[in-house]
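User: Can you help me understand a structure? I only have the sequence.
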Amino acid sequence: MPLTGEDTLKTRRQLAVGAKRYDYSGLEAAAQAGLRPSAQRVSGRTRNGRERTMKRSERALAAAAIFAALALAWPAAAQEVPQPGASPRIDAIRKAGALRVAVLANAPWLIENTTGAGEHWSGPAWVLAGEYAKRLGVKVDPILVSHETKIPVLAANQADISITALAETPERDKVVDFVLYSNTSVCMFGRADDPRFARAKTVDDLNQPDVTIAYFIGGAEEGWVKERFPKAKFLGVANSGATAPLEDIMARRADAAPINRIPWVPMNRKVKGLAVLPSANNCQDSKEKAQPVGVAIDKNQPAFLAWLRAVEKSIHPRLEAAEQKVIAQMQ
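Assistant: Let's start by predicting it. Here is the structure, written out as tokens:
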């Protein structure tokens, strides 16, 4: 169909708009200069974009460096003894020239040497107390306590820290704050030649109707055993002062029995033919009936507590090594 005059005018306007929207007038000059289309403008934009990207990268790297420096510096800063006035307890300890620690032997965390030769106290708790005293520039002053007074002595201000090994419990958390560095847990042991124990690969595998588990009546593990192994048979025996119902295991009256991970090591050394679960690392990493263990201070001493915990964290490998050394020497 031939175009009318009005159509021709409209078409010209559209072409004019299109030509304005897509202006190629600079292409020739660019081609003559040996550049790709709009290379000059693109080059400028790219260079500016790269400069902005480089600046952003530099700022990001600088920020990362600052954060890394702070991350490295924080542990060291946390270990620094609080300034005078920040912790009344630390101020009092420094003024007295002694760190008063409540002591009561509890292997392997705090060992008392009664021979009269060598160091009187040892173990990881003593190592930790010594590190605190060294950083404060004071001596360690041991204060003998009993099971009944090892916690009340703190509120009575007769000791600064109770370093006799204390298991953390909800009841104790209400009256003291803990600096945790170890744990206590339970192993399950039996005769290696007992087919019902030998077939078990994990502690869970002992929860079978044909497995008999012995426990001390009234002992700490009685309730736990009954809850942990609801399908098993139980044999409650009187405690004659032993660390575990070993006689019942050896006489085959029971297939398995609980024992704390600490006395398991020397018992296994003395008695041949036993096996343990969990078996990894000779049950020293057991999480069964686990409770954190540590030293304690009286409540409401935030600066003192933060410093104590930071120092413990910085020497934790030393404390682990000291504990393993004691366990290896236990008879």
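Now, to help you interpret it: The first strand starts at residue 98 and ends at 103. The mean pLDDT is 84. Let me know which part you'd like to focus on.
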